[in-house]
Amino acid sequence: MQRYITIRFLQSLLALFVMSMIVFSLARMTGDPLDVLLPMEAGEGERERVAKHWGLDRPMYEQYFVFLGKALRGDFGTSWKWQGHTAMGLVMERMPATLQLAGAAIAISVALALPFGVLTAVWRDTLFDSVGKVFAILGQSLPNFWLGIVLMWIFAVSLGWLPTSGRGGIRHMILPAVCLGWFQVATMMRLVRSSMLDVLDSEFVKLTRIKGLPEWKVVWKHCLRNAAITPLTYFAITAGALITGSVIIESVFAWPGTGLLAVDAVRARDFQVVQAIVIVFAAVFILANLLVDILYAYIDPRIRYQ
Amino acid sequence: MAMAIPQRVPWYMAPLQLLRAIFQVRQFPGVAMAILVFLLVIPGLFAEWIAPHDPIKGSLALRLKPPMWEKGGSITYPLGTDKVGRDVLSRIIYGARVSLRVSIEGIIVSGFIGTALGLISGYFGGRVDALIMRLVDISLGLPIILVALVFVAALGPSFSTVIAVITILLWARYARQVRGEVLSIKERDFIARARVAGASHFRIMFRYLLPNVVNTLIVLATLQVGFVIIFESSLSFLGAGIPRPTPAWGLMVADGRELIVTAWWISMFPGIAIMLTVLSFNLVGDWLRDHLDPKLKNI
Fold it and tell me: Hey, are the CB atoms on A145 and B253 less than 8 Å from each other?
């Protein structure tokens, strides 16, 4: 087990390293940063002075190692677009908003996916099951930016029940969180359903029934506990989907989080901020993957020996 | 499922097997297929002949006309016009071409690279395998949308950038799946016999192993088309996909976003087009998986 964790940990570090390299080289390809930093009419001497100040006159690999060394200490330089802010500071300042939204989305998706997944399995091949199936397939087919606009149109504009965009109280959070959680509900519901079906078929469930336990206890206690393992390990994919989703949903609802910052920074070609966001998100994502793999190996010992 | 048993299949049998499966099996998703044909394939191929108006040139005099069943709408512009007076229906018809091209090219390029690397990885094993599988792990471990955003910012939004990003994201899934299957198929007798008969590595990989993974590839590709279409439209929506003024569905949704209160039809109809297309692909993909390759249940 320890060996497995070590290997997976080193692999994660490698992935993060590769990610940092991709980010660094791609960010440099977005164009000469000097063009953004300097006004058009800047002379040659001016260019050299600024290049020296930012370390842009040194060879590429040297710039990369400087970048890596600083990145390890959480220093991604200062933002060019948002003057007076450090890149990491901006990311951290926006992070709570994103985490809040992601947390709400996860809560909504678990609260919906678990009961509905269980019920579609228990009442399989009934009307309820078919409706659930249609809902799940629909959920996976709806582009979430469009869903966002439609929900905004219905609930914020036509009915006027909820605010259209921005961050404020709970009411501001409802629409974006539903949009972000929607896709997870669909996928998780299907997973819960299929693992519930497996469990409902097994011997120990028959035993609990023979023992005379009430049906609700059989389903909601004994079966769910065993069936919940599969969907919970699905969390790694959820982390990825939430990152992707937050970029899109935050720009639809003007939610001032890291996703919106990412889109703004890419548009403004703000290297430092883009690098910081991508590395932070990648670290979160890779860490989530690592945790899930370890959890999985813990639950299912066969995996360790592959 | 006799088809799922690996045996030597002549390469020309693969499409025949597919046709047989389509006609033999019940529960064929006919409606979904019809939607795909009439919403994606026919408009995509024959946009010039079908579309009633020019998708890019509009007339400001005709801006923001509502759909024909609303007050003030006319039959000339059945789904209304957008803020520069372009016909929404024509733009949706031309938009089908973008989605069709992105999904076909994206799937073919990534499928080709992924399959080739998967075959090599599974067949040769050892260090080559280890290297390719590490690359797969890394590729699957990248946060998709951020890579795409950085990429598009670096290379500029264009059709080929979108294809490149899709390829980087998707090849790994093919490689992993194909490798897994090759590992078990290559132990079978007919491969050993081919080797004894003096077939080259190349021949074994492409004439003996490849035909046995074709079913898997078809299912995987169909299930991914929906993802590709949503991904492209999301990128276009963020302004990082297909550049304006090309009519792409995601872009059209973005165009109508601020006008949702006064002119809901601009972003509503392209959104419905995306949803129906993706939904149909998912249904067809599920059906193909159940009937061609039941062991792919977990994808």
Answer: yes
> B234 contacts in A (CB within 8 Å)?
143-145, 248
CB A234 within 8 A of CB A191: yes
CB neighbours of residue B168 within 10 Å: 18
Percent of chain B at pLDDT > 90 equals 7
Burial label for B278, CB within 10 Å (0-12, 13-18, 19+), is buried
Among the listed residues B13, B29, B108, B34, the one whose alpha carbon sits nearest the alpha carbon of residue B291: B29
Which backbone phi and psi does A78 adopt, to 5 degrees? -100, 150
Q: Is the pLDDT of residue B195 over 80?
A: yes
- Sign of dihedral through CA atoms B231, A277, A254, A264? negative
Does ipTM exceed 0.85? no
CA proximity to B253, closest of B242, B156, A240, A185: B242
Residues in a beta bridge with A86: A78
What is the DSSP code string of B35-94? HHIIIIIHHHHHHHHH-SS-SS---GGGTTPPPTTSTT--TTSTT-B-TT--BHHHHHHH
Query: Which among A18, A27, A252 has CB closest to B150?
Result: A27
Number of H helices, E strands in chain B: 12, 0
On chain B, the residues whose CB falls within 8 A of the CB of A23 are 150
Q: How far apart are CA A20 and CA B152, in angstroms?
A: 17
* Better-predicted residue by pLDDT, B12 or B79: B79
- The model's pLDDT over B148-181, given as tens digits with 9 standing for 90+, comes to 877 776 777 888 888 988 898 889 989 988 998 8
Query: Mean pLDDT for each 10-residue chunk of chain A (306 residues)?
Result: 79 80 74 64 74 73 81 77 80 86 85 84 78 78 86 81 74 83 80 79 79 78 72 67 81 86 80 81 80 72 57
Q: Scanning the structure block, which residue is given the tokens 């009419």?
A: A41
B258 — phi, psi (to 5°)?
A: -75, -15
Residue B234 exposure: Cα atoms within 13 Å on the Cβ side: 29
Closest partner residue to B146 (CB to CB) among A30, A281, A289 is A281
As a whole number of angstroms, the distance between CA B275 and CA B226 comes to: 9
Are A14 and B155 an interchain contact pair (Cβ–Cβ within 8 Å)?
no
B145, B233, B283 ranked by CB distance to A244: nearest: B145
Alpha carbon distance B43, A38 (integer Å): 48
The CA distance from B266 to B264, in Å, is: 6
How many helical (H) and strand (E) elements, i.e. helices and strands, does chain A have?
15, 0
From residue B88, alpha-carbon distances to B43, B191, B230 in Å are 14, 55, 20
Token digits of residue A11: 């692999």
B93-115 b/e with 16+ CB inside 10 Å = b? Answer: bbbbbbbbbbbebbbebbbebbb
Neighbours of B92 (CB within 10 A): 23
Which residues, other chains included, contact A95 with Cβ-Cβ below 8 Å and sequence gap of 6+? A257, A258, A280
